[in-house]
Amino acid sequence: MSNATEAQAWLHSRKFVLWDMDGPTRQAGNGQLVVDGPLLSLFHGYAGNRRSPLRYDIGPAAGSVVYPEGLPAPEIAKHVRWSLQNGSGSRGYTWRETADPFQHLHDGTAQGPAARDMANLALTQWEMAAVPASRLGTRVAALTQRLWHLGVKQAVATNNAELVAHLALARHGLDDGRFQAVVGRDIDGDLHLKPEPHALVRACAELGIADNQRSEGAFVEDSVKNVAAGLAAGIPVLGITGGDPDKARQFLDAGAQFAVPSVAGLWIAGRFNAAAAIREQALGQQAAAHGLEPPDRATTARPLTMPTHHVPEAAQARQRSSSLALDKSPSLDPGTGM
């Protein structure tokens, strides 16, 4: 299904929502750059006629390089490859040309743990440098806050580094507790990238979602290939298409429950009570379909004063480990070799 009104009601009726984090930037008809979702655009925050925070004076982007619509994935892949080829510790490994930055992770994994960790660290450094200029999706802050207040559990499940995800959410003020879990790549260790379901399964566990409750959630994703992760985890998928009708068909053919142009289209206009009423109605319909009593409204919406975000001890340990690894890592400045 792809009706926007149905998708709105469906999302607001979910027990939990898992969000992919990083999506692309597109240029709207008025010339403005727009992020359709899922949450933000990391590398595409490098926009306009300014340099990124990193030096490109030597290396693959020498000279004045302009990316009007942000720094695209093929360029990031080129920069990561250059860093790997010129890093003192990565010589002897093969880093092929690719348009996908994550392909370097797969190539590193195929060459052993050391190469995998080098590729992972190189990409993580570029991701970290992109955080200050990242762009938040339209209506993302308002929608995720509203879902939070309605009592919907939320988590981030991304292929970006977990430390980077925490930093990017904090950059945009989304580290206030609305996301009860953030799952991404570790700095070292097995990667378990989507379309593997590992990140989604782990996010559900951290949210306290039982295996038999996964069908009551939603996974919001902008990559068609990652629909497979949601299906493998037993979580219905809502695809973000950026307004591309071909991508919408691909999402639905892959098994997504809905395909919508943007997260902004999932926002229910009006005050909080309007969204709460739609959620209550949708939950009542679900209960009736299973021969159950509709839930009490007091159990479907939380008060507007929300608890302070608690980061589980295991997540804190991962963050500390990631920070130590980054502190010891070589610089990304091409003049220093990484």
What can you tell me about this protein's structure?
This protein has 338 residues and is an alpha/beta fold. It folds into 2 domains: 189 residues, HAD superfamily/HAD-like (Rossmann fold), CATH 3.40.50; 90 residues, no CATH class. 39% of the residues lie in helices and 12% in strands. Strands 7-6-1-8-9-10 form a 6-stranded parallel beta sheet, sandwiched between helices. Helix 2 packs across helix 4. It is globular, with a radius of gyration of 20 Å. 43% of the residues are buried.
Quick rundown:
This protein is α/β, with parallel strands linked by helices. It has eleven helices and ten strands. The C terminus is likely disordered.
Instruction: Please give the count of helices.
Output: 11
Tally of domains:
2
The biggest beta sheet is recorded as: 6 strands, parallel
Helix content: 25-40%
> How many E-type strands?
10
Q: What's the CATH architecture name of the largest domain?
A: 3-Layer(aba) Sandwich
Order of helices and strands: HEEEEHHHEHEHEHEHEHEHH
What's the oligomerization state? Answer: single chain
Strand content: 5-15%
Question: Which structural category fits the helices and strands?
Answer: alpha/beta
The top level CATH class name of the largest domain: Alpha Beta
Give the name of the CATH superfamily of the largest domain: HAD superfamily/HAD-like
As laid out across the biggest beta sheet, the strand order is 7-6-1-8-9-10
* Unreliable sequence segments: 46-64, 303-312, 322-338
What's the mean pLDDT score?
81
In CATH, the topology of the largest domain is named: Rossmann fold
